[in-house]
Amino acid sequence: MNSVTCFTKSLNPSRAATAFADVSPDSIRTLHVRPSRYQHLIDPNPLQAGIDLHAVLSLLGNRDPLSPKDKGYFPYLATLRGHLQHLGVESLVPEQPLAPVAPIGYSQCDLLVRGGRGLAPKGVVEIKVVQDDPEPRRGVHFCQTGLYARMAAGLWGDFDNVWAALVYMDLGRHTIDVLRFCTARQLIFRAMDLWQEAA
Questions:
Q1: Any idea what the CATH number is for the domain that residue 99 is in?
Q2: Positive or negative, the Cα torsion across 105, 6, 97, 195?
Q3: Lower Cβ count inside 10 Å, N or C end of the chain?
Q4: Domain that holds residue 16
């Protein structure tokens, strides 16, 4: 069984854009980040910066000391965590492995969260580091988020019991865009249609 990451890497962005053309988040919020004095240590390549940021993501919730480079990324994660707490999120687990749900194989979402005022009981948060307009690949990102939500719902899960957020972090502009879905049902169905289409 394919993982979510393997599948979305092979997904045609134009096909994904068409599949999600009429799908809109329930809210979009732009957060402004006060960068640390270690901002200059952030890698200018967004792909490498994304890898580095996800490594720091795994440090959320523990008390291990941060390297100077980690401290460059940390204000972005702290700002996102503060926003999620403001939404009423009670707990978050970074880099959470998700059990396979046929036909989707083992995968790992960026954040699995619980709680949220006016939201489903649990949610998945997918984080992307961007430099340019992410619009051309937004359908692919929606698909990835929807597949994680499908897995978080479990084998017999109710799709209305999972909410989702796609997060774009622009480390150059010091902003975070949070695209939030109060329920992931629509994302899940469109994403699974694409998966079945490719089978």
A1: 3.90.320
A2: negative
A3: C
A4: 4-198
